[in-house]
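User: Before I run my own analysis I want an independent prediction to cross-check against. Here's the chain; please return only the structure tokens and, at the end, one sentence I can use as a sanity check.
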Amino acid sequence: MSALPVAPPAASADAGPLGIVRTAVSRTGTMCLVELQKLRHDRTELVTRAVQPALWLLVFGQVFTRIRAIPTGSTPYLDFLAPGILAQSALFIAIFYGIQIIWERDAGVLAKLLVTPTPRIALVAAKAFAAGVRALAQAVVVLLLALLLGVHTTANPLKLLGVVVALLLGSVFFCCLSITIAGLVLSRDRLMGIGQAITMPLFFASNALYPVQLMPGWLQVINHVNPLSYEVEALRGLLAGTSARLTLDFGVLLVAAAAMIAIASALLPRLARG
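Assistant: Structure tokens:
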């Protein structure tokens, strides 16, 4: 009696580039939902994190608006400053996101994630965009405060969508920078120290507080290679209507975010072993 023919195994739905993209999008959406759940259960975090941006707007912005120490042309200084503070608040959230990765390593979660079929680059991208969701929630609080202070911003939906994209890309870059540092130092304490050491230099070496033309030559060079500067320029152009090279700004942010996702993905196994 001849054996019955065996049907060939069905192709995996997750095989191939399309399956990888589908998995990456699914993981990213899941991580973003997790972040929203965290914010829903701990709304006080938004308030506490808004204290520092509020002080920059209330104290620094109001004082320098009165004394007119920083020339910003026809744009009121508070309108000039608000986009920079938006970018700053997103930076401060994203740059310490690597601490969560180290916590997941210590809890054994990261090792379990790495043995799933999900590509490493998808895991990192999911974490990075989750950080962007948290940064966007913070940005809404800062933007509402700026409106209460009389800052004039656009109501154009397309420009507001551009603001969302700029904040997301900036958060992705700095989150992946944090994961990269975590993959190198392998310690929460060291990561915290390095994060604190680089956040303020990144902020002051950008155009968040003052026009580039006021900077000394050496600081202008740093400004031109600082992704935060391109994020601030895009936000300021979209919200305050100042001159901006939006194509260049978004191009730099996109390339920088993609490159940092790749670097962080390469270091993820080392972090898991650490």
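Sanity check: The radius of gyration is 21 Å.
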